[in-house]
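Hi all, long-time lurker, first post. I run a small reading group and we've been trying to get comfortable going from sequence to structure in the token notation. Rather than ask abstract questions, I figured I'd post a concrete chain and ask someone more experienced to write out its structure so we can walk through it together at our next meeting. Sequence below, copied exactly:
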Amino acid sequence: MKLASAILIVSLPFAVYAQTPVFEPGQYVLANGSIIDVGYYGSPAYYDWDGDGVKDLLVGQFSYGYVRFYKNNGTNSNPSYTTFQYLYADGSPISVYAS
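-- Answer (accepted) --
Happy to help. Here is the structure in token form:
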């Protein structure tokens, strides 16, 4: 019985100080002034794909699993994207299927 009491006492401070998370409203990502829309289940990632020192936007899309590349023409703190191009390997679009 003492073990159960000790667990309760140790756990109590965590419950007292627990706070509800606060999230900022979501923001759409734009390319050429329009909302980027890949359909459903888009999977975005930021990565300096072309090695120019700023993070580009890579977006996997559910349809056919193609990967879109949006070059960042701005900065890391103020990105600016234009049109996309699909990424290719050995002459074929890169495709990542969900299983």
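A couple of things your group might point at:
Confidence is low (pLDDT under 50) at residues 1-12.
The two ends are 48 Å apart (CA to CA).
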